[in-house]
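input
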Amino acid sequence: MTSRPAGHLPLPPLRVWSTTYVRDVPSVKSVGLFATLHHRRQAQLHGFDDALFSDQEGGISEGGTWNIGFFDGSRVIWPNADCLVGVTMDLLKATHDHETRSLRLDDLTNMRAAFATNAAIGVRAVSAIDGVELPASHAIIDTLRKEYMEIECDVL
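output
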């Protein structure tokens, strides 16, 4: 086993636009990305970087190619929703104390930070969801990045 190479710079924070969408079979990875890419493009046309999916009641689930997590000031929170559980999200759940609970768009004003996770990006700050501004940098995001980078990799 070896660790990830150090020294890469984090990507700029994401600004995301919520849209009502639930994947047909959320727990199964699929090449059928038309709908997710369509929602991403709609978000971009509205001046955002990407789309955040929610159900009809405003329950937050995931982004098109990433999972989302939050920090409420004391704990990391992952949405309790049907989604494709990503490897990075799963690794962070194993290394950092967290809570999984239902989160709605109405809950965003109670969050101190938000972040996206994906194997290609690691941990990336989310600085806005719709009109709710969040910090572009926060200690919890730095901590999660550090913990993620310290996870030993399997040598292939």
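quick obs: The mean pLDDT is 90.
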